[in-house]
Amino acid sequence: MKTGYVVGRVWATKRLGELPSGALLEIDLEAAASGGGGGGGAGERLVAFDPLGCGEGERVLVTQGSVAKGWFPGANAVVDALVVGSLDPTGETKAPPKAKSKKA
């Protein structure tokens, strides 16, 4: 599994029928900690299916491959990455990617 921050939504007007209806999120993966596990690499991003309704700036847990595909009923889903958790703050010092500024 990998961790990262939601940096936006991805919209697909045209899509295969095997791609389930629902939200697709762009995730900025966290760099892997020494010793393995956790992230992908600095600057690595992926698109993941989101059944939880996560929002921009939220830290999430993502699974990939057969585990992600296996979450869907039937064997036809074309999903390779799935958001499986919204992570609680841990007091860490790393800040999420900056969201677009809103002017008052």
List keywords for this structure.
OB fold (Dihydrolipoamide Acetyltransferase, E2P), 104 residues, 33% strand, single chain, mainly beta, 5 strands, 1 helix, globular, five-stranded antiparallel β-sheet
Oligomer designation: single chain
Fraction of residues in helices? under 10%
CATH homology superfamily name: EutN/Ccml
User: How confident overall, as mean pLDDT?
Assistant: 82
The first-to-last residue Cα distance is 38 Å
What is the count of β-strands? 5
The level 1 CATH classification is Mainly Beta
Discrete helix count = 1
The computed structural class is: mainly beta
* Widest β-sheet, arrangement of strands: 3-2-1-4-5
Topology as a string of helices (H) and strands (E): EEEEHE
Beta-strand fraction estimate: 25-35%
| Low-pLDDT stretches | none
Most strands sheet: 5 strands, antiparallel
Radius of gyration: 14 Å
Please tell me what the overall shape is.
globular
The CATH topology annotation reads as OB fold (Dihydrolipoamide Acetyltransferase, E2P)
CATH architecture heading: Beta Barrel
**Domain module count:** 1
How is this structure best summarized?
With 104 residues, this protein is mainly beta. Helices cover 5% and strands 33% of the residues.
Describe what this molecule looks like in 3D:
- The chain has a single domain (2-86), classed as OB fold (Dihydrolipoamide Acetyltransferase, E2P).
- 5% of the residues lie in helices and 33% in strands.
- The chain has one helix spanning 66-70, and strands at residues 2-10, 23-29, 45-50, 59-64, 81-86.
- It is globular and about 40 Å long.
